[in-house]
Amino acid sequence: MRQAGRYLPEYRKLREKYSMLGMVRNPELAAEVTMQPLRRFDLDAAIIFADILLPLPLIGVDFSFIEGVGPRIHNPLRDPRDAERLREGDPEEELRFVAEAITLVREKLDPDRALIGFAGAPFTLASYIIEGGHSRNYLETKAFMYSFPDRWNMLMEVLTRVTIRYLKMQVNAGAQAIQLFDSWVGALSPGDYKHYARPFTSRIFSSLTACSVPLIHFGTGTSGFLGEMRSAGGTVQSVDWRIPLGKAWEIIGFDSAIQGNMDPLAMMAPVEVLKRKVEEVLEQAGTRDGHIFNLGHGFLPQTPVENVEFVVDLVHELTSGSR
Amino acid sequence: MRQAGRYLPEYRKLREKYSMLGMVRNPELAAEVTMQPLRRFDLDAAIIFADILLPLPLIGVDFSFIEGVGPRIHNPLRDPRDAERLREGDPEEELRFVAEAITLVREKLDPDRALIGFAGAPFTLASYIIEGGHSRNYLETKAFMYSFPDRWNMLMEVLTRVTIRYLKMQVNAGAQAIQLFDSWVGALSPGDYKHYARPFTSRIFSSLTACSVPLIHFGTGTSGFLGEMRSAGGTVQSVDWRIPLGKAWEIIGFDSAIQGNMDPLAMMAPVEVLKRKVEEVLEQAGTRDGHIFNLGHGFLPQTPVENVEFVVDLVHELTSGSR
Questions:
Q1: In B220-314, where do the E strands start and end?
Q2: Which residue from A203, A187, A217 is spatially nearest to A120, judged by alpha carbons?
Q3: Maximum C-alpha span of chain B
Q4: What residues make up the domain containing A46?
Q5: Which residues pair with B237 in a beta bridge?
Q6: Comparing C-alpha atoms, which of B40, B224, B126 is closest to residue A243?
Q7: Is residue B262's pLDDT more than 50?
Q8: Quick one: how far is CA A40 from the chain centroid?
Q9: A61 near A132, Cβ under 8 Å?
Q10: Cα(B267)–Cα(B3) distance, rounded to whole angstroms?
Q11: What is the pLDDT of residues A64-91, one digit of tens each?
Q12: Residue B216 maps to a domain
C-alpha cells in the first residue's frame, strides 16, 4: 500500500509547497517522498510514490486532483464511440519521470530493502475513466460494459497494452516487485469479473512473468471470488480485512503467497486493540512461509504516526525467528 | 428490497407534491406507494414503504433527506458521553404511522401476496448516527467502537431494544415477514462483526422468533463471513452479487433459505444480457426449495421500468412447475 502521504508531517510540509502531481512528476521529490516512511519505520520494502491514474493522459484522458474530493476526470468516456479514438502514448516518453524516480530511490535505498513499482489494473482505471471520479455504485461503468462490449474491449485493450509497457519500464528502471491495483474490482459479480476484467489482468501478469520479479495482485471486496482473482495471475494475492486471512489463503491455495489483511481503520484504535488485531492477523497466517503483513488498503490521512511505528515493530518482534 | 421509488413514474408524480418523509409518515400515502409496484408487476410480496432511519428520533437523533445527497443526521453522535444520554421512545406512539400503513396495505393486498415489514440493524443505524450520513470508510464509527466500547454497547443496546419493539409492532399490525437490513456491516472484519455487531443482531432475531414469521437477514459485502451472519439468526439469509449464489448457500448451509443475488446494476443491461444474468442466478439456486429471487441491494432510480417487468416475468416463467 502507499506508505507515504498525509499522515506524515514531513509529507504535509512538502505539500505546502507542491501539489501532489507536482511531486509525482518531479523525480527528486517523488524519490524523497518514497523514502520518508523508510526513515521513520523499519519497513521491509518501499513503494514508489506515484498514482494509479498517471497513465490516463497516455490514452487521451485528462485528470486532476481536487482538494478534499479526490480525482476528477476532465473528459470522462461516456460516448462509447470515443473508445475507438483513444490514443496510445509511450510510457518511456510520457512517464519517464516515474522510471527516473525509481532509479533515484534504488540509489538511496538500503540494499536489503526492496522497491515496489505499481500500476492500476484495467477495470479500476476504466471505472475512473467512465465515472469521472470515485463512484458509489459504478452505474456508468457497468452500463457501458453491458451495453457496448466491443467498445469496452477496445478501452480495456489499450489500457492493458499501456500498463504492460509502463510496468516493464518500472522493472527496467529498478523496481524489484510489482503491485497491480485492481482496487474497485470487488464491485463486480464473479461472473462479470471473469467476463469483463480477468482476461485483461491475466494478460498483464503473463506479459510480466519474463521479468522474474514478484507480482502482487491487489483487490478489495473480493472475498467471494478470490480463486478467480488468483487464476488471473500474480505470485502474491493481496486480500482485504473482510475475510479471515486463513480462510482466504485456503481458497487461494497455500502454494501462493498472500498479503494482508489488517483493516486500515484499525490503525485508529487504542494500542491494546491494535495489538490484538496484529496478533489476530499473524495467528491466521500461522507459521507458513509466504505471508506479507500489510493493511487491506491504504493508510488514511488521519492515521496516528505512532501507531504505524507500533505495528511495524510489533510485527517484526512477533515474527522474528519463527518465520 | 425496496420496490417502490424513483424509477416508477407514478412514484415521481407523488414526489412532486410530497417529500419522501411526508409520504412515509402519512399511512394512506405510504400504503399507496407500497402498492404501486404490485399493480405493475407480478411480485410475490410487497415491502412496506418506510425508511431504516425512522427509529432514530426515538433515541434522540434527528435527520432529514437532502435532495441528491441522501440522509443527513442533524446531531451526529461524536461525543461518546452522549451515548449515556440517549432517550428511548415508544414505537407504538412515535412510529404508529408505520403500523397503520401496514394495516392499510393488508386490507388492499391480494391475500396470496405477503407483506414484508423491516428495520435497520443496529450496526448500520449506528454508522449513520456516528458518521452523520453515508460514509466511504466508516472512520468515525470504527474509531468510536474501538475507543469507547462501553459507550458503543450503550448505543447498540438502545438501538436493539427500540428495534425489537418496532418490529413486534409491525408484526402485530399485519407484517407477514420481517427483513432486518444490516446494509453496511460488510465494512467490518469478521472478527469485528462477531465482537461489535453480532450480539445485538442476534438478540433481535431471538426476540422475534416467537412471532413465527420468516426473518430475512440482509447484508452486503459479507461474502467473507456469511457463516457468522447466519449464526446471528434469521430464517432467510440475503446475499449480494459478489459471490456465486451456490457457493454462498453452501457456506450458509442448505438447511437455511436464501435470498438474492442479482447485481442491481444488471437492471441497466440490454435485455439479452439481463436474461443471461437471471438464468445464472436461477442455475446457481438449482432446484432446491428455499430460494427467494431478488436483487442483492435496492433498485436504482435509473432502472428502466420495462426491465423490472421483464425480470419478474422471466423468473416466474423459468421457475413455474420446477420449483
A1: 236-238, 257-262, 291-295
A2: A217
A3: 58
A4: 9-238
A5: B217, B258
A6: B224
A7: yes
A8: 22
A9: no
A10: 13
A11: 999 888 999 999 999 999 999 999 999 9
A12: yes
Judged by CB atoms closer than 8 Å, whether chains meet at A147 and B247 is answered as: no
pLDDT in tens, B132-191: 999 989 999 999 999 999 999 999 999 999 999 999 999 999 999 999 999 999 999 999
The span from the CA of B198 to the CA of A153, in Å, is 43
Cα gap A242→B223, rounded to integer Å: 8
How many Å apart are CA A247 and CA A184, to the nearest integer?
A: 21
- For B296, the grid coordinates are 442483492
**What does the alpha-carbon distance between residue B121 and residue B199 come to, in Å, rounded to a whole number?**
11
How big is the CA angle at B297 (ends B144 and B321), to the nearest 5 degrees?
145
Give ipTM to 2 decimals. Answer: 0.95
Alpha carbon of A234: minimum distance to chain B alpha carbons (Å)? 21
Please list every residue in chain B whose beta carbon sits closer than 8 Å to the beta carbon of residue A134. 136
Q: How far is A270 from chain B (nearest CA, A)?
A: 6
CB contact under 8 A, A139 and B265: yes
Residue at A3 is within a domain: no
Q: Is residue A172 predicted with pLDDT exceeding 90?
A: yes
Kindly state whether residue A172 falls inside one of the protein's structural domains.
Answer: yes
CA distance B53 to B129: 9
Contact assessment for residue A179 and residue A76, using Cβ atoms and an 8 Å cutoff? no
Using pLDDT thresholds of 50, 70 and 90, give the confidence band for residue A321. Answer: low
Query: Mean pLDDT throughout B28-53?
Result: 97
pLDDT band at A240 (very low <50, low <70, confident <90, very high): very high
CATH number at residue A200: 3.20.20.210
Tell me if A243 and B225 make a contact (CB, 8 A cut-off).
yes
Smallest CA–CA distance, residue A226 to chain B, in Å, is 10
Contact A242 B137 (CB under 8 A): no
Domain assignment of residue A278, yes or no? no
Q: Taking CB atoms and an 8 Å cutoff, what residues of chain B touch A270?
A: 146-147
**Total-model pTM:** 0.96
Does B137 contact A247 at a Cβ distance shorter than 8 Å? no
Query: Which pLDDT score, from 0 to 100, does residue A1 have?
Result: 66
Closest alpha carbon within chain B to A243: B224
CA A259 vs CA A148, A236, A282: distances in Å: 35, 7, 11
Q: Which residues of B touch A139 (CB under 8 A)?
A: 265, 268, 300, 302
CB-side exposure of A270: number of CA atoms within 13 Å?
7
The chain-wide mean pLDDT, for chain B, equals 96
Beta strands in A126-279 (DSSP E): 177-182, 215-219, 236-238, 257-262
C-alpha cell recorded at residue A96: 519517464
Count up the domains in chain B and report the number: 1
Reduced to 3 DSSP states, what percent helix, strand and coil does chain B have, rounded to the nearest 5? 55, 15, 30
- pLDDT at position A323: 47
